[in-house]
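Let's sit down with a protein and look at its sequence and fold side by side. Go ahead whenever you are ready, and we will take it from there.
>
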Amino acid sequence: MHKTTRLALMTMLAFSLASCASVKEMAARATGEDVQSSAAPGEAKAVPPPVIAEFGDIPIPRELTRQDDQSFIYEAPGTVIGVMVYTGHRVDPNSINGFFREQMPAQGWRFINAYKDENIDLYYLKDNRSCQISVKSGMIETKVIIKVGPSSSGG
């Protein structure tokens, strides 16, 4: 292998490792997890799922990737609303459904109802906000659309 190619590969590897560490730190900060703490030897530590930083109380499965070009947030004093789009390759829609049904109540969201046909739609309320989670399965990619807006009925 040429020296230049080897140097380029080593540099890319170093940047990749550095960015992984900073992503882990960002996810830990978003969930309130202590980055320095670790479980005792032989003891498994439950790691909470990351949450959408802009909302702070909507968990996201780790196998999904945010699509910034399809997402938006609107923020005004006292409110944050928006649409967040996530995708995952070869992710089972039923496992995503199970994840949200377990994790949303743990974040204080109250389950309202669900619709399931070729897609899955989940509806939640919390305080003065509503949340709709749509899970759309494709042949290769699963798309999750999370819409958060105001609710007149309260939580």
